[in-house]
Amino acid sequence: MKKIILTFITLATMAGYGYAQQKFVLTGKLKNYQSGKLTVVVDDGNDSRKIDSFSLKNGAFTYTGELKNVGILYLRNGAKDENNAMLAVIPGTQTLTGDWNNLSMATVAGNNANDGYLQLREEKAAIGRKYKLQLDSLRTEKDHDKAGEIRLRLAPYFEENEKADYKFFKTHPQSILTAYMLRFHTASLSLDELQQYYDQLGKAMQQTGFGKELADEIFQLRHGSPGAVAADFTTADIDGKQLSLHDYKGKYVLLDFWASWCVPCRKGNPHLKELYSKYQSKGWEIIGVADDDRNNAAWKAAVAKDDLPWKHVLRGASMNYQKKDPKDISTKYGIHSLPTKILISPEGVIIGRYSSEGDELDQKLKEIYGG
Predict the structure, then answer these.
(1) CA angle 264, 269, 271 (to 5 degrees)
(2) Which of 81, 119, 250, 350 is the most buried (most CB within 10 A)?
């Protein structure tokens, strides 16, 4: 998200080096090399991703970069999107061996930072081959709604990949690769499960950029879960008028996190409209928070087409993918999957967090209003 040669430092002592920039050297030899450069991306989880490229001579190369402590490096030759190598790198020298035409199965010799990862890649490659026809269809699909339908049909593929990752996390609990990949599973893990994985990382991994980012995700998720005080926000609504959450104090409010391109969200809108028609007169309000900051036209068209009668705002996502915006409403509530619904009490405390599955929201509203 094998083995690394490390002559200067070990993972066990990594935390003692702080966050000063340190050099790493990656040498390698790729068989079946013909021509072209390798693109390299280095990510140490500290809000910095360096993109570079370098040439090879007869398939051999030496690349020198910098890290704050430990990081993830991607190598890509540009032939295919899936033909890239991902590996953990740490200060010192490490050596890569692989095939120019199959970078994804490259190995790194030396240190144990990549232990077990080759096996995980082989397992996931087998899963990919099993679903190849469906995956090819998904990659060529241009229409958002149709792509969403395909993703629903590919649910077994995603589930198998998740199971493979979780097996890796459990067998390599203190791996930097575990710290890195866990961030992509925050939507499917409960708060308690995520906290348990984080605790098992150990102090060295928790102090890496990826560990700190994971801690931040847990903090946000905890503050978007029942029992937490709902984070206030003020923003312009779909009509350009100012809307503040604190103006709804004294009412039960549902924050509906959705998007125009989210198939399950759109499919759930008719039922949500039924609930609104039933309980709005009793003092229940909904604020739709859309993840459509990059396509306002699609957002407004979806609201009109689905005839959604409640208030609507955009989440306020930053246009910079590498930096979080403190005004981002979704970030305030730890939203990692759509749809997600947050029910807030008249006192401003979160009393429910729901996905599209189940009837927990229906039951809670019956409990509050009766009938």
Answers:
(1) 110
(2) 350
Q: Contact at 8 Å (CB) between 61 and 39?
A: no
Vertex 218: Cα angle to 216 and 220 (nearest 5): 70
Q: 115 phi and psi, to 5 degrees?
A: -55, 130
Question: Which H/E stretch holds residue 118?
Answer: helix 117-130
Contact 197, 171 (CB under 8 A): no
Please give the pLDDT value at position 81.
58
**Closest among 213, 241, 242 to 324, alpha carbons compared:** 213
Average pLDDT, the chain: 86
**Dihedral angle sign, alpha carbons of residues 115, 121, 124, 126:** negative
Structure tokens belonging to residue 37: 């450069």
User: In the predicted model, is pLDDT for residue 299 greater than 90?
Assistant: yes
Burial 125-158 (b: 16+ CB within 10 A, else e): eebeeebeeebeebeeeeeeeebbebbeebeebe
DSSP 8-state code for residue 237: B
pLDDT of residue 5: 25
263-264-269 Cα angle (round to 5) = 100
3-state secondary structure of 293: coil
Alpha carbon 325 to its chain's center: 16
What is the reported pLDDT for 16? Answer: 35
Could you tell me which of 207, 172, 168 has the C-alpha nearest to residue 185?
A: 168
Contacts of 358 (CB under 8 A, 6+ apart): none
For the segment 338-347, what is each residue's pLDDT rounded down to a tens digit? 999 999 999 9
Question: What is the C-alpha separation between 227 and 117, in angstroms, rounded?
Answer: 38
DSSP-derived secondary structure letter, 45:
S
CA distances for 36 relative to 53, 77, 106, 311, angstroms: 10, 7, 18, 53
Distance CA 279, CA 296 (A): 29
Query: What whole-number distance in Å separates Cα of residue 365 and Cα of residue 371?
Result: 9
Distance CA 284, CA 362 (A): 13
